[in-house]
Design brief:
alpha/beta; Serine Threonine Protein Phosphatase 5, Tetratricopeptide repeat; DNA Cyclobutane Dipyrimidine Photolyase, subunit A, domain 3; 3 domains; 17 helices; about 5% strand; binds flavin-adenine dinucleotide
Length: about 450
């Protein structure tokens, strides 16, 4: 049997059940497809792929290619629309099976359906490699996924399991050979600009594993995680594993396993538990996105709650460019544009500002994050935005933060605002015209 393995958000060899299944073939074509539509602005004025993530992704692809080589394989990187590229490769190489990891997101699901429809003679299979649990090992059917995180957490904790059993496939010393080494058109991919600011992250499985080890066994930062995780700009205050997790360079089960191992051999406390707790948030949003499908992207959210918001271009521009009346928000937005990263606290504050202070449709904010974040993850991003906007997995609703109080608490000396130039000389106010439409 000839198999095409379509790498997506699982850019690793370790703990990859989908690749393991694909390895049971006579010939194996390993493919990654760079979609040109990622680089074109969408309905919310933003591109799906900004430069930080693109750089990280490319590094991860190069690292993956290096890991595949000793196994007799290479990575075919195609620049084109997957709905066209995958069927063409299947026909050209007489492929009888296509495998990839199961992903949340309606766009991703539609692509998969379109490809399957074009390949009636091929077996198309998806495996769950991006989550702690598989759908079958969740303590509830997907359609009964609780509407709140706490209920989900309680049900998971009742099982006594932190993740589904992990498959170690590092021990594989070979993969089936590829059907020749056809040229790919990777040279057509957009160029990767040099970073303006020293890059915080390097893509690839090894840098991700190194970071995991650093945060746990080497530096023991995990011991204080619960107390430090809200810091706005401290590289060791939280794990900063999100870019590798979002691209699947490391397996979330590996992270959970490391936490458990750390607790057995080093320290077990409320901070070590809390790191797993945060992974469980990620898990919750993963299944939440699969359950709710297109409702994840609707203005009124999964709750169908009327969310009054409009679009003010000048307010959105000011928010994106760090030019609002809120120095803390500006600083965090400048940090995001410069580095592709923002702390969880920062994300909550800028989201609250966009929704409640600027009165904008939350989906514009989510789209900007999608373009900017190096760790962009469809389920975590849209799940968190809905939550903050009060139309998602939050029975309380209205998560408005008092930005002044937050500044006093998290940036009492104004160091963060200074470092990221949050004091704007000419901040853009809420209105640019008066009631008679005269410019203010
Ligand atoms: C508006 C908004 C948008 C967000 N968009 C994304 C996104 O696109 N991609 C993304 O990975 N995270 C997103 N998050 C969640 C969170 O902010 C980041 O995961 C976290 O800041 C990454 O830093 P870290 O790896 O140091 O996290 P840590 O605090 O060390 O947490 C460990 C891991 O747990 C997961 N995690 C932590 N917090 C959350 C959370 N609230 N929701 C889901 N998973 C979580 C992440 O995988 C993270 O790497 C968003 C949060 C908000 C409020």
């Amino acid at each position: 049997m000839n198999t095409l393995y379509w790498f997506t958000r699982d850019l690793r060899l370790d703990d990859n059940t989908a690749l393991l299944a694909a390895s049971r073939s006579d010939m194996l074509l390993c493919v990654y497809v760079v979609d040109p539509r990622w680089f074109v602005p969408g309905p919310f004025q933003c591109m799906a792929m900004g430069t930080h993530r693109w750089r990280f992704l490319w590094q991860s692809l190069m690292a993956l290619e290096r890991s595949l080589r000793p196994l007799g394989q290479r990575l075919h990187i195609a620049f084109g629309e997957p709905e066209r590229v995958i069927p063409e490769l299947v026909h050209h190489h007489r492929i009888s099976r296509v495998i990839r990891s199961r992903q949340p997101g309606t766009w991703e699901a539609r692509q998969w359906r379109t490809i399957r429809d074009q390949l009636p003679d091929a077996v198309c299979q998806q495996f769950e490699t991006l989550s702690l649990f598989t759908e079958g090992s969740l303590p509830m059917p997907l359609q009964d996924l609780p509407e709140t995180f706490s209920q989900f957490r309680k049900q998971i904790e009742n099982t006594g399991e932190r993740y589904s059993e992990r498959l170690r496939i590092r021990t594989l010393t070979a993969l089936p050979p590829p059907p020749g080494f056809p040229d790919d058109n990777r040279g057509d991919c957009p160029p990767i600009p040099e970073p303006q600011h020293p890059a915080l992250f390097t893509g690839g499985e090894n840098p991700g594993l190194t970071r995991l080890r650093q945060f746990t066994f080497s530096n023991h930062d995990i011991d204080h995680y619960k107390d430090t995780r809200n810091a706005l700009d401290d590289p060791d205050a939280s794990s900063r594993l999100s870019p590798w997790l979002a691209n699947g360079c490391i397996s979330v089960r590996e992270v959970a396993e490391t936490i458990t191992h750390y607790e057995k051999t080093e320290t077990r406390n409320r901070s070590t538990y809390w790191l797993w707790f945060e992974l469980l948030w990620r898990e919750y949003f993963f299944w939440y996105a699969l359950k709710h499908g297109a409702n994840l992207f609707r203005r009124d959210g999964v709750q169908g709650k009327k969310h009054t918001a409009t679009f003010y271009p000048h307010r959105f521009k000011a928010w994106c460019e760090g030019n609002t009346e809120f120095p803390l928000v500006n600083a965090a937005m400048n940090q995001l544009r410069a580095t592709g990263y923002m702390s969880n606290r920062g994300r909550q504050l800028v989201a609250s500002c966009l929704v409640y202070e600027l009165g904008l449709d939350w989906r514009y904010g989510a789209a900007w994050f999608e373009q900017q974040l190096v760790d962009y993850d469809v389920a975590s991003n849209y799940g968190n935005w809905q939550y903050l906007a009060g139309v998602g997995a939050d029975p309380r609703g209205l998560r408005q933060f008092n930005l002044e109080k937050q500044a006093q608490q998290y940036d009492p000396d104004g160091e963060f605002v200074r470092r990221w130039r949050g004091q704007s000389d000419q901040p853009v106010g809420l209105h640019t015209v008066d009631a008679a439409d005269w410019p203010l």
